[in-house]
Amino acid sequence: MSLDNKKIACPLDCYDACQGELIEENIKGSKENIITNAKLCVNFANLLKKENIKNPSFEDKIISLEESLTILVEKLKNTTPVKTLFYKGSGNLGVMQQSTKNFFTQYGSTLTRGSLCDGSGAAGIEEGRGDVVNPPIEKLLNADIVIVWGRNLTVTSSHIYNLIKDKTFVTIDPIKTDIAKKSKIHMQINPKTDHELALLFTRFAHMQDLEDREFIDEFGNGADWFFDISRNRPVVSYETTTGVPLSQVNDFFDLIQDKKVAILVGVGVQKYFEGAQIMRCIDSFAAFMGYHKNEAGGVWYLSNSSYGYKNQFEVKGVNKKVSIPKVDFGSYDLVFIHGANPVVSHPNTKKVIDGLKKSFVVYFGTTLNDTCEYADLIIPSASFLSKEDVRLSYGHEFKAISEIVKEKDVNSICEYDLTNFLLEAFDFDKLKNEDEIISYYKNHTPFIEEFETFNFIEEVEIEPLYKEKTADNFYFITVKNKNSLNSQFANDDFVYLHSSTNFKDNDEVTISSKFGSAKFIVRINDDIKENCAFFYSGNKNANYLTPDDEDESSFSAMYQEVLVEIELS
């Protein structure tokens, strides 16, 4: 029987959530999916080339799948539940991957809360609008101007970019990214000053009588307070702190006047202690202009992909929870890691490694990664090609479907089956029928309600990093690599510096922060702002420099709340 035209959803952590199809034994982009638009990106191609884990192992010895499951159950039954940690990553974003949490909740494991990625910004949007839900993609397609604010659009949203590539762009980013080079205006902003730029925009908008008074009067709450914040200091002072010339701001308003404007905000703007406030300032500026309720345009961030869906794996439990950036792996007897690579992606790498060495570590995933080096028990997860699933998107409102196109490896197990195995072993109620769960996600289309009231930020208390900035230190910033969305692929481990720093290509340097230090090889790139040290996400040494602490609002990581010093090794 031919498998042609069977659907395959890309599981990668990406805005686009591509829909593929099997055609003559090749996976191609779906022509019917408006986002994929018959094209698959390089990251999907890399994923297809990635070799899956072939066999389970225990203490570096190959064992059978049955043996690995027996060991797991035995270890769990001989461990105090609260002394186990369930740590879920985003290596696969299909809805069926959520099933494992069901068991560990019932078992009584310690769970994580917060986010390593977007939690702070999401908290800011929730305070303003109530829900973190993006506008329909049609509003983006109908916009005249697209402001790309701290988002490497051509890399993280290559399909969405293809749909809007002919529009006029404005980029706000410390890095001269590819989208910045294509933009009418590039504001090369200093890190952690995005809220100041949003306040400056608000001030200019008022001076030019461009605010949407109708929106403010009908939907706004606290707009006057927000405007008062924007005018509590001289306009010219913003030029010094943000690094954005006032002439560019004038050009910006000349460009957007009487235009339909969309703002695509990335996660880089909110990777700070006060990230929620920063995002809320940007969102409040957009509300001041009335962008949220216009027929075209609006503000896009990382939408809650599960909004309007009932979690099919939800189960009540009174579990201890720890904020994810503050996890101390060494304080648990057993750590179950599902689809994550904390040795690379978690802040404070030294603390992570030291902790994993002290615990019994179970790794459950499809591919070997840096964390596997510290795993005592490795259980292979079935390939995404070998299981049914549904991929919901945080970048748009469309879903992608995965059907089985490849026979499952006999030494692997899918998340649903593993969960049911553990539930049965502990005499817990098993999950609903798999077909029933998948059918629900396939067939349910949530109703997205627009907010009735927008709450403007009324107070801004943000400690700027530039107060600690000297001539001898640098802002630490990261961005996604075009060939590697996450740490399961080959990564770029260099540090990128501007030529004005007087470092040279191939210099070996030691980079230090108050949280740690590591050695790097230098690459000179004048697309980098002079005062920044730039790393691609997934750099194996970058997180030796980052704080294992949480933001003020959402138990989330604040990777860029740090300045670094650089010396020749």
Give structural attributes.
569 residues; alpha/beta; Rossmann fold; Dimethylsulfoxide Reductase, domain 2; Barwin-like endoglucanases; 3 domains; six-stranded mixed β-sheet
Protein architecture, described:
- With 569 residues, this protein is an alpha/beta fold.
- It has 3 domains: 8-115 and 307-443, Rossmann fold; 119-301, Dimethylsulfoxide Reductase, domain 2 (3-Layer(aba) Sandwich), CATH 3.40.228; 465-568, Barwin-like endoglucanases.
- The chain has 18 helices and 26 strands.
- The chain has a 6-stranded mixed β-sheet, sandwiched between helices. The chain has a 6-stranded mixed β-sheet with strand order 22-24-23-26-21-25, with no helix packed on it.
- Helix 4 packs across helix 14, helix 9 (194-207) crosses helix 11 (223-230) and helix 9 packs parallel to helix 14 (275-288).
- The longest helix is centred in the middle third of the chain and has 14 residues, at 194-207.
- The protein starts with 6 loop residues before the first strand and ends with a strand.
- The mean pLDDT is 95.
Helix percentage = 25-40%
Strand arrangement within the widest β-sheet reads 5-4-17-16-15-6
CATH class of the largest domain: Alpha Beta
Distance between the termini: 61 Å
- The whole-number mean of residue pLDDT values reads 95
| Poorly predicted runs of 5 or more residues | none
Quaternary organisation of the protein chains = single chain
Rg measurement, Å: 24 Å
> What share of the residues does DSSP label as strand, in percent?
15-25%
Say what the CATH topology of the largest domain is. Answer: Rossmann fold
Describe the sheet with the most strands. Answer: 6 strands, mixed
